[in-house]
Amino acid sequence: MILHASCIAHWGRGLLILGPSGAGKSTLAFEMMANGAMLVADDRTVLRSAGPRIIADSPDTIRGRIEARGVGILHAQPYGPVELALAVDLGRPEPERLPPHRRLDLLGSSVPLVLGSGRIHLASILMQYLVAGRADTEG
Question: Which residue intervals define the domain HPr kinase/phosphorylase C-terminal in the entry (predicted)?
Answer without folding.
Answer: 3-76
